[in-house]
């Protein structure tokens, strides 16, 4: 035995004991876990009243389905399996009560409006196929239903206007695989190495050129991760207007810049060597350049946000309370990833929906709520003249967020509530860029993103309906701006000066309040109340828009009326119960005879001292570029609108915030009672307790 070995072992043991002792001692000195403050207590009755806007519960959805199955007298097929010739329930959602009824309940002590659902049904199995909308109530035990289709849209909704169900997409996929593609086996095998599983489809809208058409282009991509930027050059136009699937047919084929009558002609031209073939290199399953897998190894963790004393807001059922704000929540969409889509410590809310199925579906963590320190002062001033002081307020705001994935795009929807009484509606776009197969003069229509990928120019438009009541239901629309006036200097009359002055105008009619997309709009435009603040000004809320919209489609287009809301950056109309939305989902499949045409809302009615609605359009032009690979980033792709108090208060309400900081040169600004920032090493040195990571986005697909 080596005589030095026992000493080496003893020394090693001593070192280990020392390390363990240090660990134990340091553990005792660790910062404590963050403790939550007492939860916010809501006002008496506010919880109950907020439920007037609450989404349907799963139990209510089930009751509506059972009622319809038993009362309509027709067989209803599960929409997930329905053929075009079947009857089915497309969706069940909340029917929002009429505004007058809600206000009588909330403000006037009136009866609670009956709780009702809106059910959309496709009737394909009857002599006159159509889409019908029923209001079903009262919930939770339905006893009546009424057809509101004609009341809402002025007539029946033709069956060809119905949105495509998932089952119809699947049926078209089967048609392509078993009927269309069987006519071109040589081309598909030798050019695309087609095996029925290595291609993915993306569709286009509208479906044709005139009312009644249901003819859709199906664009083929390699079926890999991020397939949206892997076009193969083949597109197939399918006529699926017949309710009999066996009557569907290929109307046209497009490959590498050339059109063919059908797949038979494409096959014949290929076999005879009359096609210019551009064979695309087969991409690996991860998509290669389109993969979102990080190209760099893990390093130091990115900054995290936490609340040292717990959330300063409360969420119960659909009611949210934050400082002086309170509101109800509706349902949103895709499951969110904690720590990326929202701060890890945000409050995550599950939602339920019933669409294209007979059973409700739960979307876990599809909405998040969090208070965010925006990293800048909401207001501040450092005084080094006369008196010496600093005063400021951290810009902390409550954010309600959802993210909707629509095909290749992901839209981040935020509603932000600020301490000064402002509200912001904001949307950020990300996801994969719109692309097509690069050929010929493709650079006229976008930028080349990869060898065979053209990023195609396109626009995004978002329209918000803002039903804003300022100091009561009756408001007027007022515009303030500036103009220079030439005047003589009072102290030196021989001199002229240019002096900015305030311009004021009341916009009396809907025509005056409709501002075209690229036109000049007053920089201060606000809803004015019939009451005044302490200084004699009409109390108001200003509308401020941030947008980088592209051009609107020419009004001469046969489809323009279907999206005529996009003509205007802002339009203010008199509120009408029969004008609930600026468009309709049925417009997409029949823009030539729109179910709802926003242009008809603007008919020069007076809007002075009326219940008003602002229709706000934001958007941006997107010319995809190489940095959109693999994904479009949110930076620079954000548009929004603000509702800002304008003489609504007597002073900035954020002065009453508990987060304010103020100290002078004569005070001990290192003392906690003078400056709360001096206490941060003590009050904010706790360790947040993060729950385990969970994600349910891949469940129940």
From TrEMBL:
Q: Which UniProt keywords apply?
A: Copper, Membrane, Metal-binding, Oxidoreductase, TPQ, Transmembrane, Transmembrane helix
Enumerate the Pfam families for this protein.
Cu_amine_oxid, Cu_amine_oxidN2, Cu_amine_oxidN3
The record's listing under SUPFAM superfamilies reads: Amine oxidase catalytic domain (SSF49998), Amine oxidase N-terminal region (SSF54416)
Mitochondrion found in the keyword field: no
PTM summary = Topaquinone (TPQ) is generated by copper-dependent autoxidation of a specific tyrosyl residue.
Documented EC number(s): 1.4.3.-
Gene Ontology MF term list = copper ion binding; primary methylamine oxidase activity; quinone binding
Domain Copper amine oxidase N2-terminal: start-end pairs: 70-144
Gene Ontology biological-process annotations: amine metabolic process
Source superkingdom: Eukaryota
Q: Which residues carry this modification: 2',4',5'-topaquinone?
A: 409
InterPro entries xrefs: Cu_Am_Ox_Cu-bd (IPR049947), Cu_Am_ox_TPQ-bd (IPR049948), Cu_amine_oxidase (IPR000269), Cu_amine_oxidase_C (IPR015798), Cu_amine_oxidase_C_sf (IPR036460), Cu_amine_oxidase_N-reg (IPR016182), Cu_amine_oxidase_N2 (IPR015800), Cu_amine_oxidase_N3 (IPR015802)
Q: Which Gene3D superfamilies does this chain map to?
A: 3.10.450.40, Copper amine oxidase, catalytic domain
Q: What does the cofactor section's free text say about binding? A: Contains 1 topaquinone per subunit.
Segments crossing the lipid bilayer: 7-26
Domain called Copper amine oxidase catalytic: residue spans: 327-655
Q: Which residues form the Copper amine oxidase N3-terminal domain?
A: 162-257
Cofactors needed by this protein, per the record, are: Cu cation
Instruction: Return the similarity comment.
Output: Belongs to the copper/topaquinone oxidase family.
Q: What is this protein called?
A: Amine oxidase
- From which organism does this entry originate? Grallaria varia
